[in-house]
Amino acid sequence: MAPKRTKSTANVASKRPRRVIDLETKLKLIKDYEGGKSVMVIARQSGMSHSTIATILKNKNKVMEAVKGSASLKATRLTKIREGPISDMEELLMTWIKDQTQKRIPLSSMMITAKAKSLFAMLKEKAGSDDDVEFTASSGWFKRFKNRYSLHDVKVSGESANADVKAAEEFLETLDKLIVEENYLPEQIFNMDETSLFWKRMPEGTFIHKEAKSVLGFKAFKDKITVLVGANVAGYKLKPFVIWHSENPRAFKHISKHTLPVYYRSNKKSWMTQLLFQDALLNCYASEIETYCWENNIPFKILLIIANAPGHPPFVGDLHPNIKAVFFPPNTTSLIQPMDQGIIAAFKAYYLRRTFAQAIAATEEGTGKTLMQFWKDYNIYDCIKNLAWAWGDVSKECVNGIWKKTLKRFVHDFKGFAKDEEVAKINKAVVHMANNFNLGVDEDDIQELLELVPEEWTNVELLELEQECLAEEEAREKKTAGEEKELPRKFTVKGLSEAFADLSKLLKKFENMDPNTERFSLIERNVHGALSAYKEIYDEKKKQTKQTTMDVFLKRVTPPQ
């Protein structure tokens, strides 16, 4: 009998140790591949084998789902969730925890275990199960649960959430020293923060709110988006970053998301996650701020001051070599964070004013459209356009003023932002517009709507939300597999020609009504000036069409040689 073969000591010693690859690295490899690099080049640059890269690319969907679900970017394993009632309960519990932390509500281990027991009891009752599965929410389970879901960034404590004045004062001293030592300019100091917005909600007590309860679309009143806004001390406002639950909304048909007046991303819970914040900073704001610095002839050296929120990565300061991040101490944002000093309240008020102005315009166009019809037709694309408009209404003086409580320099000449006065003025205008529809609202109703925060999800709502998300995901996968991609919008000679013809007719109507010829001439010139970019596109398209027609003609009449 042949002797049993054994591995040599040399072979064992030379065996390459198993490499652990975290999600952040996998994301980078996927982006490199989608950016045009070949698997061979990626393997050579990363020092990984060809088969390892191929496996990561093959599992792209799993990787993306893991990070979309707020998995830690440093996680090294895509854990398969255990099946059974306890596993189902943990999924719902995670949704609840993320919702609470997104609202910055302090959590204790007692609150989490009590919610876990409540969810488990509900699921068991709904299943009508008579089995002996019990759940006690022991300390051992809680420890394993935190490890399974990488809950190290969720603050679990019983401390008071009262504003910490002393910590705020100490932080301002430290911040001022940093600004002086690093020689930061007002244009280089930024603050960002996110807020929830119920984009399709009407004031309580109005007829449309009551009527909506009886129609299928009432869930729209609970539909929210998350909006990340930011600005610097000099008054420059960053483009808003919007998160909604749908990756490709029907309202975006034939619209390239890159042409929207906001940065748009999706998350099935419409939450800000660490991955989305990282995406916002690296893929959106870094290039926008760099361009701003170049245009203003200042160094691209940025100080970003942000809240220590669950959706903000603790390593955010290491993401970009030109962006240094500083976190506000816990329980101080209401005192010293610029975005908490009234600018977000004004932004929401401007959004509401713009939406009501659109409703009035839509119902006065002679189409017979009612406010309820306008509300039903109002979609996320309309919302985004109004958001951009509202953010544009926030003045430079307002942006300057919100920094007075944060900085000890640069702000001495700033007037400050009278939040209550400004918001009250906007609310008064909204009340006037709302009562065009006999809604019977007053300024307190509008203020209550603006201050509305997302309610805590009930157990039943958590379960429904999870089921809806799964159904939407399945429908999206089927659509992606079975349908061709929709064609993006594009300019055509015919379409542009018809648009300019319609414009001429419209201007002619105004000319026939206006008794002041000089005024009309000025308006006509301004309108054509505003649309000059479209005119250039039209002229170029016509030139290309004529050239193509001539080439075809010459090809037909020229005899072959």
From TrEMBL:
SMART domains: CENPB
GO cellular component, one term: nucleus
Identification of the protein by name: HTH CENPB-type domain-containing protein
Alphabetized UniProt keyword annotations: DNA-binding, Nucleus
Organism annotation: Equus caballus (Horse)
Keyword Cytoplasm: no
Compartmental location: Nucleus
Pfam families hit by this protein: CENP-B_N (PF04218), DDE_1 (PF03184), HTH_Tnp_Tc5 (PF03221)
Residues in HTH CENPB-type domain copies: 77-155
InterPro entries recorded: CenT-Element_Derived (IPR050863), DDE_SF_endonuclease_dom (IPR004875), Homeodomain-like_sf (IPR009057), HTH_CenpB_DNA-bd_dom (IPR006600), HTH_Psq (IPR007889)
PROSITE patterns referenced in this protein's UniProt entry, alphabetically: HTH_CENPB
GO molecular function: DNA binding
